[in-house]
Amino acid sequence: MVTTKEKLSITELSKLLNVTDHTLRYYEKEFNLQIPRDSRGRRYYTEDLYNIFLRIKQLRDEGLEIKSIKEILQNTVSDESVFFTGHSTLDDSLTSPNSSNYGHDFEYILSSIECIKNNIDEMKILMNELVNSLPENISSEINASTKEIINELNIQSCKLNDSIRISNKLIEAKLEDHLKRHFDKIDESLSEWRKRNKSGAFKHLFRKLGIVSY
């Protein structure tokens, strides 16, 4: 690693890799990475995680798809503790031909919302730390306004949870509409096939067999 620090913040990691914070959050979700937290609840990145993100970036720059990179990491990463034991929901969507695009879009939306929620959580932690570090007389004066800010952050967090549910419903509706139009087209093609065969090849065959009159 190009730094002597054992623990990196997401901002420090993004600068080292020359990618955005959002991209790192997206990779966390895509590759089901387990990001540890310190005693204050703040996320940090170890040297092992740095190396994994670096490898992902290199492979993406070479043009490899997410699914291929996953297979490479599974065969090359020795420390499995950096991965969650559960399966990522995206793994299922990658193997489903009918829903891969929708699964990818939805995972991207979730990653964006999760990134914002984590930022809100970190802001709440910092606000509490600020109040606790101030002298008691000053702390009591700003405590009310701080609580108001934290309450507003909680409200925004709840709104983000609502956004997840709404996004899920929209994607499900879009997929359902896509499937409906697909099967409608199949029905239409079958109807046309029946019409053609009723007056064409089948009718000619039936006449030869004497089933219908000339």
**Number of domains in the coordinates?**
2
Estimate the strand proportion.
Answer: under 5%
Rg over C-alpha atoms, rounded to the nearest angstrom? 28 Å
Mean pLDDT level: 69
Order of helices and strands: HHHHHHHH
Largest sheet: none
What's the tally of helices? Answer: 8
**Terminal residue distance:** 87 Å
Give the helix proportion (percent range).
Answer: over 70%
Which residue ranges are poorly predicted, with pLDDT under 50 across at least 5 consecutive positions? 84-102
Shape: flat
How many strand elements?
A: 0
Helical/strand content category: mainly alpha
Short description:
By secondary structure, the protein is an all-alpha fold.
Descriptive account of the structure:
The structure is a single chain. This protein is mainly α. The chain folds into two domains: 1-86, Orthogonal Bundle (Multidrug-efflux Transporter Regulator, Chain: A, Domain 2); 98-188. The chain has eight helices and no strands. The longest helix has 64 residues, at 136-199.
Can you give keywords for this protein?
single chain; 214 residues; mainly alpha; Multidrug-efflux Transporter Regulator, Chain: A, Domain 2; 2 domains; 0% strand
Structural topology:
Blueprint lengths: L9 H8 L3 H10 L16 H15 L4 H11 L12 H6 L5 H34 L2 H64 L1 H9 L5
Helix pairs in contact: 2-6, 6-7, 7-8
